[in-house]
Design brief:
The protein is of the alpha/beta class. The chain has helices at residues 14-32, 45-51, 57-64, 88-99, 122-125, 161-176, 192-205, 218-227, 239-252, 291-304, 308-323, 341-351, and strands at 2-10, 35-40, 68-73, 103-109, 130-136, 146-149, 152-155, 181-186, 212-217, 234-237, 260-264, 270-274, 326-327, 337-338. The strands form three sheets. It has a ten-stranded mixed β-sheet, with helices on both faces. Helix 1 (14-32) packs across helix 10 (291-304), helix 1 (14-32) packs parallel to helix 12 (341-351) and helix 10 runs antiparallel to helix 11 (308-323). The radius of gyration is 20 Å and the shape is globular. Helix 7 (192-205) links the parallel strand 8 and strand 9 (212-217). It folds into two domains: 1-118 and 256-355, Isopropylmalate Dehydrogenase, CATH 3.40.718; 124-252, 3-Layer(aba) Sandwich (Isopropylmalate Dehydrogenase). The protein contains twelve helices and 14 strands. Helix content is 41%, strand content 21%. It binds 3-isopropylmalic acid (IPM) and magnesium ion. Magnesium ion binds next to helix 9. Residues 89, 92, 243 line the site of 3-isopropylmalic acid (IPM).
Length: 355
Amino acid sequence: MTKNIAVIRGDGIGPEIVNETLKVLDKVAELYGHTFNYTDVDMGGCAIDKYGDPLPEAELKKCVESDSVLLGAVGGDKWNDVPGNMRPEKGLLRLRAGMGVYSNNRPAKIWPQLADASPLKKAIVEKGIDFIIVRELIGGIYFGEHKTEGNTATDVLKYNESEIERIGRIGFETARKRSKKLCSVEKSNVLDSSRLWKRVMHRLADEYPDVELSDMLVDNCAMQIVKNPAQFDVIVTENMFGDILSDEASMITGSIGMIPSSSLGATSCGLYEPIHGSAPDIAGKDIANPIGTILSAAMMLRFSFDMEKEADAIEKAVSDYLDKGYRTADIMSEGMTLVGCKQCGELIIENLKGA
Ligand code: IPM
Ligand code: MG
């Protein structure tokens, strides 16, 4: 198969981790007889420097016209003082909205080889951590009106039924493919938008009788994720709650650097990115962990290109790499072999097996 991939290297460690990921994709192409064409897209701080705009229309167009988008990371202190609508993050938000990718899938899964890296007690980790947060990505407070007037600032949190319904369905469908347990997370004891959320989720539940729906308030959920993460399988929630809970969920797996994500909308053209940031403090030092991005590429193959075997091969290669005791600095522990970003990419490629 031939696929055209838009590649956003972005800022900070973005270019390094994307480079290693493209090498992995090239090796997959070679082993499985595919052609991946890459189109570079400027987004984030580097685009502000180059065009005075974190995502010029022409760059967004390249993404929308691609078969999928691979993104490293954007942002950094250098652009902290630019106005809100010109921040690097605004490029990312415009990209998500422009691509219409309303459904963000963030797995929180512990790698058995890294169980010791979790900050949770062993007894809790041993019960298992393997759940997915399905986060609504292009609505809610992120996309409501933002304004500052004198000493008052306002951000509007708004959802309509159809926005809730389409992400709700993804939640149910995702649960259906797993353990058939869906937890809808909101703040319906305070927010109108959450009461609507809950109502829509329960209406949908009638259409998915095989899935068991439960409700949880977001503050309680934040607590339950550290108290008893094994209770969760699929969580579905709105944009900002999903942002916050997914950072928490990644932390309990011990290694935010390992976690990929996928964002999809109505078509197969998806956006794939690690959930960590651009880590400007370690940029250019060849010490970043490229695995979150490499696993995001695996998700791209699986969800957008229907390349199941190829995705499995990447995940297996990562697992073999960990089994052999290699670790980048972020997940280094006693007795393991410390490697840099490039070496990590090369070792994973060595472990990649063809059909
Ligand atoms: C994320 C990030 C983004 C978000 C930022 C960079 C805008 O935190 O992908 O979780 O809040 O969605
Ligand atoms: Mg976040």
